[in-house]
Design goal:
heterodimer, A: 452 residues, mainly beta, Neuraminidase, 2 domains, globular, B: 139 residues, mainly alpha, Cytochrome Bc1 Complex, Chain D, domain 2, 7 helices, elongated
């Protein structure tokens, strides 16, 4: 047998191989981190927006972070509430008011230049919710959930005859919008807003006592879960998924953690109803608008409690014996994962899944704040889109204003002064962010065209 | 010229008498600040510009409710309003509570302010008129 210094070939090979292991590990680690760095900083794995899609020279009037641009994809569409974008880029808009026309409008971009035209319009019901899942378009009135089958080009096959998925959801004027989102397990989640500000016997009436327990909670003031593909469901077929949530317009299913997140609209008029406890400045700030991470069956506080973001805790509502500081039964109510200043009206929530924006945006949350009315006589607040970075399913930093100047003026005293009020959010197949405005009917597309 | 003098004095007398009668017919000017009362009791919903809030709180700008029959607008303030009606073609979902705890002269001052601002030009409302309407509602 061949030997080297008395050792066999295998023994020599073994020793030299073992010696090279640390070198191999070093090379592997170095290559991996270099590739990872390139992946993030050089944009490998990122999806740049098509070169045909260019931001408007004035970014559609919006103020955006460096590297971002915006284009107006549609204007004067009517009161556009929520929006869904199909995998082929077609845009589906749900209109609040169908009295003067169709309740659903579809936009198709034939040239791929980001300026689509109206291709379908149908639906004779007002409403807010709209979503696309598994070849179906889902849309809601203020009482029902419908769905329409889509063909391979994402055209609605029979717009006059939707399937009736859910009916009979309660609607009594206030907080009527039935916003929806779907998970990846065949379920649909719908907001049933409480038809009351604070569960008083006489709504918003100074001196009117509250009802305890609040009877509204059995069929409103929460989130209900239904099957997305079963017809003619109503309350008895659904699951009372989230309880004690006053009204939710913006909600989204977080696919990273497989959980439902909702944005609650906090109660109004602390000063009007309890001027001895709350001045006009406290009234403007309180209560917080809450982002809630929903665990099935849990109780989130309304009407007994509200979240005070200045004290960082849930406190007892004045109608239920609170004085701005007492906690009482609110020790058992779930807290928000992040809280925002009062009354800004979060109407849209979207977890970003795309690869167009810089990687820090991935899995983070965009929120469309419709803008306040109940901050008066203090200045109003909101009328912008905010971003919250997330890591492992939880906020990992402070909220930041992402898209601003929807209102068109710096100081908004009355909501009527705002030119545009952001409402719905959607992500396009290429990772563009779409925002609707239910005041002027503008639809914006926000793109990243900065350095990758 | 005694006739001229006596005519002058008589004329002056009737003028003054007429003034006195006139004063008892016109509603007295309120000392209350209608704008301040509006901002304390109405502004949070109807807003500083009287424009209300889309789909939630109706505007007060040249609507038939503001410009129409005095007793109708006074009734709304006293009883509140929760009917689903179109106001200038749009629905508003929030309920207006009753403000019957305000005094007659306060309500009069607020409504006089509203009816003479926000592009409205309509007559003032007096405390007496509010008192009358309130009494009628009780019966």
């Amino acid at each position: 047998m061949n030997t080297l210094h008395g050792k066999s070939f295998f023994e020599v090979y073994k020793t030299s191989f073992i010696r090279s292991i640390p070198i191999l590990i070093g090379v592997a680690l170095f290559s991996y981190t270099t590739i990872l760095k390139a992946y993030h900083t050089k944009g490998l794995g990122r999806n740049p927006v098509s070169k045909l899609v260019k931001a408007d020279s004035n970014n559609a009037g919006l103020k955006l972070p460096v590297g971002f641009g915006a284009l107006l994809v549609a204007d004067k569409m009517g009161p556009t509430r929520h929006i869904a974008v199909a995998p082929n880029g077609d845009i589906f808009l749900k209109l609040y008011d169908a009295d003067n026309g169709p309740g659903i409008k579809v936009l198709h971009d034939a040239l791929g230049n980001g300026k689509p035209t109206l291709s379908q319009s149908f639906g004779n019901y007002s409403g807010t919710g709209i979503a696309i899942k598994n070849g179906y378009l889902y849309a809601t009135s203020n009482n029902d959930i419908y769905r329409y089958k889509l063909d391979k080009d994402y055209k609605v096959i029979d717009p006059a005859n939707p399937e009736h998925i859910v009916y009979g959801l309660i609607e009594r004027g206030e907080h009527e919008s039935k916003s929806i989102t779907l998970d990846n397990n065949g379920n649909i989640y719908v907001n049933i807003g409480a038809y009351s500000n604070a569960c008083q016997v006489k709504d918003r009436q100074k001196g009117s006592p509250a009802m305890d327990p609040c009877p509204i909670l059995d069929s409103a003031g929460g989130i209900w879960k239904f099957k997305a593909d079963v017809l003619n469901q109503t309350y008895k077929d659904g699951i009372h998924y989230g309880k004690g949530i006053r009204n939710t317009v913006g909600l989204d299913w977080n696919t990273e953690t497989n959980q439902l997140f909702v944005m609650q609209h906090g109660r109004d008029q602390l000063h009007d109803l309890f001027p001895n406890l709350y001045g006009t400045k406290e009234n403007a700030e309180l209560p917080a608008e809450e982002m809630l991470q929903i665990e099935p069956g849990k109780f989130y506080g309304w009407p007994y409690c509200y979240y005070d973001e200045l004290q960082n805790k849930k406190v007892l509502s004045p109608e239920y014996g609170g004085d701005g500081k007492k906690v009482g039964r609110c020790a058992n109510a779930e807290n928000p994962v992040i809280a925002f200043p009062g009354h800004m009206a979060p109407n849209g929530l979207l977890f970003y899944k795309g690869n167009q924006f810089p990687s820090r945006y991935k899995n983070g949350a965009f929120i469309a704040f419709h803008g306040s009315w109940n901050r008066a006589p203090e200045p109003q607040k909101g009328y912008f889109v905010v971003f919250v970075p997330f890591e492992k399913g939880k906020p990992s930093g402070k909220w930041e204003i992402f898209a601003d100047n929807f209102a068109g003026i710096d100081l908004v005293k009355s909501p009527g002064q705002a030119k545009h009020r952001p409402c719905g959010l959607a992500e396009g197949p290429d990772g563009s962010l779409y925002v609707t405005d239910d005041h002027e009917g503008s639809v914006y597309r926000i793109i990243y065209n900065g350095k990758i | 010229m005694p006739i001229l003098k006596s005519t002058l004095i008589t004329a002056l007398f009737f003028l003054m008498a007429g003034n006195v009668f006139a004063q008892t017919k016109t509603p007295p000017k309120t000392h209350l600040d209608g704008k301040k009362l509006y901002s304390e009791n109405c502004l949070s919903c109807h807003q500083e510009d009287g424009g209300g809030v889309t789909s939630m709180n109706p505007p007060l700008i040249k609507t038939s409710y503001v410009l129409g029959d005095k007793s109708e607008i006074v009734k709304i303030v006293l009883k509140g309003f929760g009917e689903k009606v179109k106001i200038q073609g749009k629905y508003y979902s929030n309920i207006m509570p009753s403000l019957s705890y305000l005094k007659d002269d306060q309500i009069a001052a607020i409504l006089t302010y509203v009816r003479s601002h926000f592009e409205n030009t309509a007559s003032a409302i007096s405390a007496e008129e509010v008192k009358e309407i309130r009494a009628k509602l009780k019966n």
